[in-house]
Amino acid sequence: MDPVESGKLQMSEKVESNGRQGRVLLIELQVREYIGTFLWLGFLFALTAGVKVPLDSSPKATAVSVAKAPWVFGAIQWLLQRWPTWLSGWVLPLLSLAVLLTLPWWGQKVGKRWVWIIFLTLSLVWVGLTLLYMFMG
Amino acid sequence: MGKTGNDSFMGHIRPSQIRAGALRLRATFCLGGFSFLAFIVLAITGVLLLFYYQPGDRAFASLSELDSALPYGGLIRSLHFWAGQLMVITVFLHMVRVVWSGAYRPLKELNWVTGVVLFLLTVMLDYSGYLLRGGQESGSAATVGQALFTALPGGKALATVFFGRPSPLNGSTLSMFVWHVFILAGAVSFLQMFHFWRIRRGGGVRPL
Amino acid sequence: MTRDRSLYSRRQVLSLGRKALLVLGVGSIYPVSRYLRGKEDTLAIARIPSSELPLHGDWQRLGQTRFWLRQGNEGVEAMWASCTHLGCEVSFDARRDQWVCPCHGSLYSRDGQPVIGPAVNPLVRAEVKEKDGAYLLQQPPV
Q1: Fewest CB within a 10 Å sphere: which of A44, A68, B154, B188?
Q2: With an 8 Å Cβ cutoff, are C32 and B72 in contact?
Q3: Same domain for C62 and C102?
């Protein structure tokens, strides 16, 4: 950033006496959004060009024996392979969803730090199960 | 986008000034923006796919024809797939960021709930899209989903409403098509608008 | 609006970004148009196992297609049921022993010769081959 810019931003970030931050023009954000957009689009096109998306097995071909769920449901599929349906498919997912939905109210009871811990634990469990399913069937 | 006053179309969607701290990368990592961008790409490629995709028995045949015989068909299909997977990931990461920065606290509870619902809808869209591929794997995925519903009392009715009557070898049905293309995507568009408006009304992104 | 150098460079980035989006948009017109027109000139084809369509002397329609088949003296014959007037779908009426066009009333004889109506050209035969116990049909080229 050239000195003129940084000086301008520093002035804008100066916290006023009532604690509110200064304001900048929208164009500052728009510029960053354009850059971000093209970076993301570039990544998308790189993925599209680089990794081939397979077609499934044709329904008319001989039946394949492995039933694979899409990765988004990998965690539930992993649970379903071990525990009864009512637990793996309904109780555990809905319970997790309920905790997620009510996070703001947990926050009021136990504070931001504990909410973060609860959320992180929940996320790591679900992401972990998904990865387990993806790489270990 | 030249006009920024509140009477102009673009102006009333974006404020003319924003909090300086919102410019910092670590305020948002652009994750909400990327999620919306993914949705736009999905909507455009999805509409293009609609010109040739046939739900039901001809799903696999129409898709493999699209993939191999149509110019740029494979490209559009791949873009749709990757944008979809990226959307699930970015929405999740966005949720992580929001929790980390505490942006769910009063008075933002409703927006948080809206966001979680949007995440759920995104995952549902991924699943329903997977079923629409019409291959054998989609058939087994549909069977598992159906079984989850029929395990409930009165679940057969729900299963039929959501899945239609898929075959074990082909999960694509007209019902799932309607859910994926119209109901779920429509719900996402509508909730997104509320989600963005709520952030705007609250004065924009508030960094740490 | 102050005109200092930092804001000018921002506007450049923005205008570059807009131009890039415009290029992306305009650039995708050709691929999308080729995609949407991908099946413009493809001819209809059909395949049916002969056991599923037992043939006799009268014209029979194959499913929902425009292919009609019958057992002729020298083998299987197929008709492409498009009116030679303006292309409407014709159907064979067994009681009248004629092909009938619903759009403007053209009538054709059993073998496809125009009898009455705005149509002047006979109906066009479709190509039919028998292979591996199935009939392979192809729409006649324009």
Answers
A1: B154
A2: yes
A3: yes
